[in-house]
Write a structure and sequence with these properties.
heterodimer, A: alpha/beta, Rossmann fold, Alpha-Beta Plaits, 2 domains, two-stranded antiparallel sheet, elongated, B: alpha/beta, Nucleotidyltransferase, domain 5, six-stranded mixed β-sheet, globular
Chain lengths: 293, 124
């Protein structure tokens, strides 16, 4: 069971919800079928541009692996400057300019087309390091893994893709994926293949605007979805109206509460600040699994 | 001799388009006869690497120099590698005006990218 947490708008509480959901699954969940219960959950922080879940779940990293993309390297001695590599590249990451060939690593998606098409066999592939994958054990025995993109790298997607492959869950292990804000490629890569998409929003026009976009992504990927309304009590009724007409169930409401904000600012999780949420998260998890079956 | 200028519309009387990679048209001009030919900039529709595409166009057309307003880091690197002299149009209004000033040696040659990199993730 893989539950992805996304939002569209940034700062709505994705990590707040994802970390507390993971923590709630480390203690016994009454009413949970045995097949779901055995392993401690796996938490994947997919926001590789600005990972922050470690601040709350406090993992000790035990395993590390570099992430790289295979980028072209041109052997100038063999190159005839025919330009076929530049022609085939969809991202203009390789350019033939007169008698010079230039590779732009930051534009390269590592597809390998240039290597395949070169009639002279002048192109080989070399690894270009983009970031790091890290995993370890976090609070309450949660299995934790994250990707960290190197400063200056423009592409998060390959790191997320490799993170999901590298930190493979055990059979029946529940996976919580914390996505980045927005609805672009990194978010699509994070939520792709999930069994359920949990959308965290706030009841403001901005929250609603981005919730609509995020719900479109979920629909496009055919994901069952539910909504968590955070900072409930501010704003207007727009989110509620939208969820009703769009058939999106609101699975939880977290009130706009100064004590919660203060606790989170100090690195506490929601279930630590308000222990009664442990049962509420478990109940939400049961709703999600029932929806699945 | 052949000079390429980025222009807003496909004519020598057009304003100079200040963007190199995403300037609407590329005007190929013979500065002596003022004969010109307009081409759509292949970089305009690119999701990324627009400047590189435009630079390839300039190189393939064997231009002797290029005039625009703004050369991004990728475009600069590509044009520089090709040994292509780059000039900024300054206060010139039209392409005709820019080419006259170029001939009079009044345009400033560019020695570095005129803009910081804007990282934009293409379709992954």
């Amino acid at each position: 069971m893989r539950i992805a947490v996304a939002s569209g708008k940034g700062g709505t509480g994705k990590t707040t919800v994802a970390t507390s959901l993971a923590l709630s699954l480390t203690s016994e969940v009454s009413g949970l079928p045995m097949s779901f219960a055995p392993a401690l959950p796996l938490f994947l922080d997919c926001d590789v541009e600005a990972p922050n879940a470690h601040l709350f779940l406090k993992p000790t990293f035990e395993r590390r692996q570099e992430v790289s993309l295979s980028i072209p390297h041109v052997d100038e001695a063999k190159c005839t400057h025919c330009g076929k590599c530049a022609e085939v590249c969809q991202y203009h990451a390789i350019a033939v300019l007169g008698k010079k060939v230039l590779v732009f690593p930051q534009l390269c998606h590592g597809c390998g087309s240039c290597t395949l098409i070169c009639p002279e066999g002048a192109i080989s592939e070399v690894p270009d390091v983009m970031g790091m994958l890290e995993s370890g054990t976090a609070d309450r025995g949660i299995h934790f893994a994250r990707g960290v993109m190197n400063v200056g790298e423009p592409m998060a997607t390959p790191i997320i893709r490799q993170l999901k492959k590298w930190a493979a869950p055990k059979p029946d292990q529940i996976v919580i994926l914390d996505a980045s804000p927005g609805t672009s490629c990194p978010v699509v890569e994070s939520v792709r293949g999930a069994d359920f998409l949990l959308l965290v929003t706030e009841p403001t026009p901005f929250g609603l605007h981005d919730l609509k976009l995020a719900a479109q992504v979920g629909r496009e990927l055919n994901l069952p979805m539910g909504v968590v309304v955070n900072r409930d009590g501010i704003g207007d009724g727009g989110v509620d109206d939208f969820c009703e007409t769009a058939g999106l169930p609101i699975l939880m409401r977290i009130p706009f509460d100064r004590a919660i904000a203060e606790g989170i600012a100090q690195g506490q999780t929601l279930v630590e600040i308000r222990p009664e949420y442990l049962a509420l998260f478990q109940k939400m998890f049961l709703q999600i699994t029932e929806r699945e079956r | 001799m052949k000079i390429i200028i980025t222009t807003v519309s496909p004519t020598i009387e057009s304003e100079v388009d200040p963007r190199f990679g995403r300037g609407a048209h590329l005007l190929v001009i013979d500065p002596d006869t003022l004969e010109w030919q307009a081409h759509p900039n292949p970089g305009v529709t690119a999701s990324g690497g627009a400047g590189i595409q435009a630079a390839q166009f300039v190189t393939e057309h064997k231009a002797d120099a290029v005039i625009s307003g703004d050369f991004g880091p990728h475009a600069f690197e590509a044009l520089n590698a090709a040994g292509m002299p780059m000039y900024v149009f300054g206060s010139a209004c039209t392409a005709r005006d820019a080419i006259e000033r170029f001939k009079a040696g009044q345009l400033e040659q560019v020695g570095a990218a005129t803009r910081e990199d804007c990282h934009h993730e293409g379709k992954a």
